[in-house]
Amino acid sequence: MEKHREVEIRYNELKDNTNKFGEKLAALVAKEKTFNESTWTMLSWLTDTEEKLSMTRQEASAPEPEALRAHLEKMKALGSDSITHKNQMAELEKCGREVMAQMAELGIRGEPIEKIQEIIDDIAGRHEVISEEVTERANDLQTAVTKSQDIQDAVDQLLSWLKDTDRRLDLVKPISLNQEKMTEQAQQLSIMENDIESHKPSVDSVKQAASELIKTCDLDMAKRLEGKINDIGVKFLSVQKKCRQSSKELNDVAENLNRFSDNLDLVKTWVQLNNDSLESSEWSRKPIDQLKVGWLGLLYH
Length: 301
Hints:
The protein has helices spanning 2-59, 65-105, 111-148, 151-170, 179-198, 200-214, 219-273, 275-279, 281-284, 288-299. By secondary structure, it is mostly helical. It folds into two domains: 1-148, Up-down Bundle (Methane Monooxygenase Hydroxylase, Chain G, domain 1); 150-260, Methane Monooxygenase Hydroxylase, Chain G, domain 1, CATH 1.20.58.60.
């Protein structure tokens, strides 16, 4: 009888361990599926974008202003797309970490984990190369566009762009505490900040060209042009500062929200671990100071 009971206990232990192993294995399969889908999304975008960049390199030799402007708009579109895919890249890295952690729980080491990391590093590297090339080419094209057109038209266009950018910054909605909406706001501000920074070479080029023109034109025209150039300088610094401040405020809120979420998770975990103690009469008899020390130790752990 005793032997039968011992066999039954060992059987139940084996069954429990097998179920736990099955659950961990199922979790790994699910996480690998999510990781593979995220990888496929990023690789598809990378391949498509690399092909587009290759095509634009072959077309970019045309010196006509309209052709340059068309190439610039393509670069801006690719730049916005690259910024949007930063979130997809972050999601891929998160999925990869989860897969590697799940593998570790199952005792998987070495090559499989290294392979996951290699995939992440390769995709991250290709994304960074695209982002840098798009930014550099957009800056170069912005300068080329400015030099290829009449300086006064360029000044008026910049003033119009500054006015429109300032208006769009004023229309930015108050910071949302919803994570998805906050991510959208961060993307919008990042795109606007990228657009502002891409215009800096153009602003500098116009100011330099205008300074040369002022030396040769009549006095009235020189005064009007000088006033516009000063206006451009002031307004550009204004929109640049306003956009950076909005981004900083959004980042501050995001950090505080993440900190709050982390603390909330700690509290939930602590409550679960101490559920029996919380319900006991002994807990209610503990001094207030002792309870405070426990909670503070949890929050600042």
